[in-house]
Each structure stands twice: as structure tokens, then as C-alpha cells.
Amino acid sequence: MRVIDVHTHTWTRDIISKKDIETRRIAAERLGVNPVLDSTIESLLDAMNKSGVDRAVVLPIDSGLHQKMPLSLTEKTDYHANEVADSPNVVTFVGIDPRRGKTGLKELERAVKEKGCRGWKMYPPNGFYPDDKEFDPFYELCVDLGIPILIHQGFAPRFKHVKYARPVYVDRVAADFPDLKIILAHVGFPWKDETLMIASKNPNVSVDVSGWQYASTVPMKIYQMVADAKIMRVFPNRMLFGSDYPLFEDTMPLKKWVEFFKGLQMPPEFTDQGYKQVREDEIEKVMWKNAARIVFGEKV
Ligand SMILES: [Zn+2]
């Protein structure tokens, strides 16, 4: 079974802010693991190789409006576009804070048309609600360019504001822009019910499962998430595999996460209650086909 990981990150300590480094230290401490201060394209490629991941999407975040960043917005776009340039199986989105207005719109168009970025990564915990009408020109542009938006949802690090990451603030956008492809990251962890509701009512909305490795010691939580997604008709056609690599490598390495999801079976505790068993062809949609269609525009 082929695998696409729609949610990975690369950086080095030279291109993130001092605040970001501190954030990573705090996050690692909370998880009881070592902070990852560098995540190079080489380490991503190596992990993909070892884990049987055929393609991956890199998701840069634009924190430049409220943090002093070593790279400007365009330099950051170019950095990520260049790092994936020699790896046909890895693509990058562009990270833009939509409060940048016209500058952001210009950069979105440049990133897609000139630098080959395949989508837009939006990070609301930096301080904005996605359904602000001021951002509608961004959504119109994404429809025109035919690219998806992947929006961070749910749990956010220490210095970010989690109220902006509530899935309900994506609903107005999804409803008003029916041709816009939206991916809600992390199935909104831990706000999965709100996320699944938004995805369920809006056929243009999908979810990615990255970050659920957090619950790997209590896999019942993951089964419950998939079971609920199935009831809400989000699984199997609008759920995408993702890892948030490298953030959970010490919790559950990519290889293990891939194996877990590939082999996912509802345990008897679920099927006995009436939850339907998942089939291999449904899992194949999550691991490959949905992302091939939604992110890569392929007919599968
Ligand atoms: Zn992420």
C-alpha cells in the first residue's frame, strides 16, 4: 500500500526564531522527550525511506508578523521551495499569515506560480480567525489557483492562542467557498467532534490525522476518532494520513505510525457495540488515494 504523509515540517535552528526554539523546549518537556531543534530535508527523506512513505508535504508556518524571524516571508518560501526541488516525492506548501493583506496575496500567487508550492498552510493560533471576511480574497485566489488550504486546528504550543484554532471558525469559509479544498489538521485534536461536524456538513473539507500519535499509549482514543469519523461520513473519503514529522518521533516514530494506520482494525470492544469494521480499501484511501486526489489533483 502506497503512503502519502500530508503533514510534515522541516526547519533548522537558523531559520526559526528564538521564541520558537524556546517553544520547542517547553513542548518537549511536556512530552518528556528531547527537543527537536533541527529537522532537515535529509532526515525527512531518510524517515520516509525507512517508513515506507512514498510522498510527503512540507508545511512552513509564517510567524513573521509577531516574531523576529531570521528569514523574510519570501526568503522562507524560497528556502522551502529550494529544499524540495531535488526530491520529486516531497512537495511544499507556502506559509502565509493572511493579515499580511496584499503582500500576502502577492506572495501566495508567486509561491504557487513561480516556486511550485502546492498549497497554503494557514496557522490561526498566531492570532486570527479564519472566517474574517478580510481574508476572502485569499480564499478566492486559492480557488483560482486550484490549490488546497491546510489549516492548523486544535492543540497549539505554549505561546500561541488556541481560541483561534477552533474548527467552527472554518465553517463560514467552507460554506461560502464550496470549490475551496480545505484540510483541517490533526482532526482538531482534541476537538474531534467539532472538526468532524464541520467536515461532515461541508463536502469540500477533509481532515488529517497527524498528531494522534499523542494517544498511541491509549489506542482506543484513535479507534474512537476513526469510528466517529465513519459515522459522520468523513472516513473513508475525506481523511488523510499525516504525521506532523518530526514532532512525535520520540512518542511514536513515523514507521510505527504508518504501520499502525495501515493495519488499523476496530477491536471487538467496538464492533461488539455495533461500530462497523474498517476495510483495507478504506484504509488505502486514507493512506494514499484521498491525498493523491485532494493535494496532488490526481484522478484515483
Ligand atoms: Zn504541524
Keywords:
300 residues; alpha/beta; TIM Barrel; six-stranded parallel sheet; three-stranded parallel sheet; 11 helices; 39% helix; 10% strand; globular; binds zinc ion
Task: Provide an overview of this structure.
The protein has 300 residues and is an alpha/beta fold. It has one domain: TIM Barrel. Helix content is 39%, strand content 10%. It is built from 11 helices and 9 strands. The protein has helices spanning 18-31, 41-51, 73-84, 102-113, 136-145, 168-176, 192-201, 220-231, 254-262, 268-271, 280-294; strands at 4-8, 55-58, 90-92, 94-95, 120-122, 149-151, 182-184, 205-208, 239-240. A 6-stranded parallel sheet has the order 4-5-6-7-8-9. Strands 1-2-3 form a 3-stranded parallel sheet. Helix 4 links the parallel strand 4 and strand 5 (120-122). The chain starts with a strand and ends in a 6-residue tail after the last helix. The mean pLDDT is 96. Bound molecules: zinc ion. Zinc ion is lined by residues 7, 9, 59, 244.
How are the elements arranged and paired?
Elements: E1 4-8, H1 18-31, H2 41-51, E2 55-58, H3 73-84, E3 90-92, E4 94-95, H4 102-113, E5 120-122, H5 136-145, E6 149-151, H6 168-176, E7 182-184, H7 192-201, E8 205-208, H8 220-231, E9 239-240, H9 254-262, H10 268-271, H11 280-294
Parallel strand pairs: 1-2, 2-3, 4-5, 5-6, 6-7, 7-8, 8-9
Helix pairs in contact: 2-9, 4-5
The protein binds zinc ion.
